[in-house]
Amino acid sequence: MPGEILLKMVSVLTPDDIKQMKAAGYGDEVRAILGDLDKLAVSWRDDAYGVMALVDVQIWANVRSSLDELRAVLRES
Q1: How far are the Cα atoms of 28, 39, 44, 48, 67 from residue 18, in angstroms, in the given order?
Q2: Nearest 10 degrees: CA dihedral of 26, 18, 68, 40?
């Protein structure tokens, strides 16, 4: 369940949201939010490590992929 909630939290942000927030002068704040989501993801993974169900492994991959995409957009724009 925590993994699904985390995935929802990460999935709410779009690359366009990141571009708009950075253009509005909030790049550092967005970077901090993404960093906090990353810390939360790592904490969840570490708690579940060794007993992660297959569905959790897929959620982990989706969370990482989304965060990587959002960070890339932040660096580009």
Answers
A1: 11, 19, 24, 29, 11
A2: 60
What's 51's DSSP letter?
A: S
What's the pLDDT at 3?
Answer: 85
pTM (predicted TM-score)? 0.84
Q: What is the model's pLDDT at position 52?
A: 63
Burial of 69 (0-12, 13-18, 19+ CB in 10 A): middle
Provide φ and ψ at 50, rounded to 5°: 90, -25
Tell me how many degrees the CA angle 50-56-61 measures, rounded to the nearest 5: 105
Nearest to 62 by CA among 17, 18, 9: 9
